[in-house]
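Field log, afternoon session.

UNIT: design team B
ACTIVITY: writing a sequence onto a fixed backbone
BACKBONE:
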């Protein structure tokens, strides 16, 4: 765990403080990622999971996620949904590597006045998710804080060394795919934060996607086994942001087609009633925890064959470039897609 007091940079004999709200989440990650890795670390900071050698043919995966009351969930949120989502987010990281989850540890920081029953209900949701996906919750830590409730979960996984799907392998000519539908979780968040009048079944569907996301573990493992995937990431910050991560780390750009972005009927209804622009929200809302991946143009047939069993959609192609993502309308006009996905320190 990184404990950051402050970052100082000397300029002209003076010490000036860089603030997180100025540099942003991803600039900070780039700074600490420059630290040298141990030989056993095959992939450190910068992917969905760290990857460590576990013998000649296997690897161990490690990922961590945190949720803070008032930042990631409101105090009125159903605690079972908070706990379920805490684990599901990390499961999605393992899915993005193509791995199988194994064990988890959980840390809780709570004030002395925090309702114990509420935290127990958070654990009930977490255990429900763990039971469903065969994860053992093997330990953790509890500490006291004077502020908001803070939850942190570290998850391990495993897989074959030669099947790991990194973010950095996309190549010019690859097809770009996404699983499921986009924007539903953002619609659910909109319902939590706002007063949008929707039919009960629509509200239920969107809130389910917000509080109980579906990590695509089976699909991730199947994709890894095909050998056709050149890069993969989970959609946590939004396609606009997450695809740009893949492009930058692969040294390419990408074009996605507006008409192909998959959206549910419930999400479209939410946008109709709320006035949200559905394409923008689908691409930038985040927390859908779907899989976004590139496929070698010579092996597209292997992935298309999976469409009978899994919900996947081809949304674009990888092109030559410097890490940018463009969106193409029905007339073939391309514009640069702003990277408006979630940044913890963005304004």
């Amino acid at each position: 765990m990184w404990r950051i007091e402050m970052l100082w940079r000397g300029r002209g004999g003076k010490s000036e403080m860089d603030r997180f709200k100025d540099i942003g989440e991803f600039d900070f990650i780039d700074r600490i990622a420059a630290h040298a890795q141990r030989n056993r670390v095959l992939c450190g900071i910068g992917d969905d999971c760290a990857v460590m050698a576990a013998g000649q043919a296997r690897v161990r995966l490690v990922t961590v996620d945190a949720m803070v009351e008032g930042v990631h969930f409101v105090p009125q949120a159903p605690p079972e949904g908070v706990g379920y989502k805490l684990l599901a987010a990390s499961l999605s990281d393992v899915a993005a590597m193509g791995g199988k989850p194994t064990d988890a540890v959980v840390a809780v920081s709570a004030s002395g006045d925090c309702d114990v029953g509420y935290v127990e209900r958070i654990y009930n949701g977490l255990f429900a998710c763990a039971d469903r996906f065969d994860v053992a919750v093997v330990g953790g830590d509890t500490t006291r804080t004077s502020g908001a409730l803070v939850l942190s979960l570290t998850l391990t996984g495993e897989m074959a060394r030669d099947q790991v799907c990194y973010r950095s392998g996309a190549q010019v000519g690859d097809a770009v795919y996404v699983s499921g539908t986009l924007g539903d979780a953002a619609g659910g968040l909109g319902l939590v934060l706002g007063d949008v009048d929707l039919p009960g079944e629509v509200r239920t569907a969107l809130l389910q996607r917000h509080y109980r996301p579906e990590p695509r573990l089976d699909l991730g493992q199947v994709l890894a086994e095909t050998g056709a995937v050149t890069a993969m990431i989970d959609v946590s910050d939004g396609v606009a942001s997450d695809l740009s991560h893949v492009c930058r780390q692969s040294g390419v750009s990408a074009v996605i087609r507006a008409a192909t972005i998959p959206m549910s009927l419930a999400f479209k209804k939410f946008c109709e009633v709320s006035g949200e622009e559905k394409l923008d929200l689908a691409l930038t809302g985040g927390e859908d925890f779907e899989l976004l991946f590139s496929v070698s143009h010579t092996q597209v047939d292997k992935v298309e064959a999976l469409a009978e069993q899994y919900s996947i959609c081809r949304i674009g192609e990888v092109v030559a470039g410097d890490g940018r993502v463009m969106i193409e309308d029905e007339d073939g006009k391309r514009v640069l897609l702003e990277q408006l996905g979630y940044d913890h320190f963005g304004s």
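LOG NOTE: The domain at 175-336 is CATH 3.90.650.10 (Phosphoribosyl-aminoimidazole Synthetase; Chain A, domain 2).
NEXT ACTIVITY: expression trials, pending approval
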